[in-house]
Design a protein that fits this description.
Length: 284
């Protein structure tokens, strides 16, 4: 006969697992709706039977998506890949280099400067959109790729996170050994520091990639040329037309489904780096 303690543990585990199952269902529900709704035509979506696979229309929706506006959707797709991919890589390098410098070097006013960086974490990015627009207007960058790309190269939280990773992943002994062997500071960072802190680099990259991919307000402020739009702004412009022209509904839903794919690929392909013990055996 089970003791009261074992029954209590069993009930606790059941309650926790049940809660986790409900949380998973809650998080996956919008994605399931998106997958099934992308197979419907305008009539099927407006009829409210999006969760059934009757009248499978995904092929035609994809064809209409590719042909509408001379393929403008995939132009937006490439723009988003450029903004998010290029911006996240460069931003991650800047953050890791800054975090490494804050951790491994001593210079005057270091902690005060780092405190200023932490204050930047408290400022919402939407509050900076108007000042950045005014600066871009004075420099002639409004309605260009640079007006969206340059602001996303800075991430105060990424600098903080990189400093934490640098403290935990890069032993000072490894850097000193490289300096004794004659390596310069840039060589030490690129060949040793960056490689050891790669889990931190990947973490900052994923955070920034997701933020840029979902970025909406900054492109809305900076861009007026439809050919420069990212996916978020392009799909929004289509969605504003759905009330007057319901044929946009399948385009918006199918386009939203395709827009999720890069985020899933990025997280699935890079998650192994979070668990990699890259510092094992680094100190000889």
């Amino acid at each position: 006969m089970n003791s009261p303690a074992s029954r209590s543990r069993w009930m606790s585990k059941t309650a926790v697992n049940g809660f986790l199952l409900l949380a998973v269902v809650y998080m996956l529900f919008p994605l399931v709706w998106l997958v099934t709704a992308a197979t419907k035509d305008t009539g099927g979506l407006l009829a409210g039977n999006a969760f059934s696979f009757e009248d499978f229309n995904l092929g035609e929706n994809l064809s209409n998506l590719a042909s509408y506006g001379d393929g403008i959707y995939f132009r937006w797709y490439l723009n988003s890949l450029f903004y998010a991919g290029g911006g996240a890589i460069v931003c991650s390098l800047i953050c890791v280099a800054a975090g490494y410098a804050f951790d491994k070097y001593e210079f005057r006013g270091k902690e005060k400067l780092f405190g200023l960086v932490l204050m930047g974490v408290l400022v919402p990015t939407t509050a900076l959109a108007l000042p950045m627009y005014l600066l871009a207007s004075k420099t002639g960058l409004v309605n260009t790729y640079w007006s969206v790309l340059i602001p996303v190269l800075v991430n105060p939280f990424g600098v903080y996170l990189a400093r934490v990773f640098s403290t935990g992943y890069i032993p000072n002994e490894a850097l000193e050994a490289a300096r004794i062997d004659g390596a310069g500071e840039l060589r030490v960072f690129w060949s040793i520091g960056l490689r050891m802190v790669m889990p931190g680099f990947v973490t900052v990259f994923l955070f920034q990639f997701t933020a840029i991919w979902n970025n909406f307000f900054l492109p809305l402020v900076m861009l007026s040329d439809r050919k420069l739009f990212p996916l978020s702004l392009g799909l929004y412009s289509w969605n504003t037309n759905t009330h007057g022209e319901p044929s946009f509904y399948p385009l918006v839903v199918t386009g939203s489904l395709l827009a999720v794919i890069p985020l899933i690929v990025a997280f699935v392909s890079l998650q192994r780096h979070w668990k990699a013990g890259l510092t094992a055996g680094s100190v000889k």
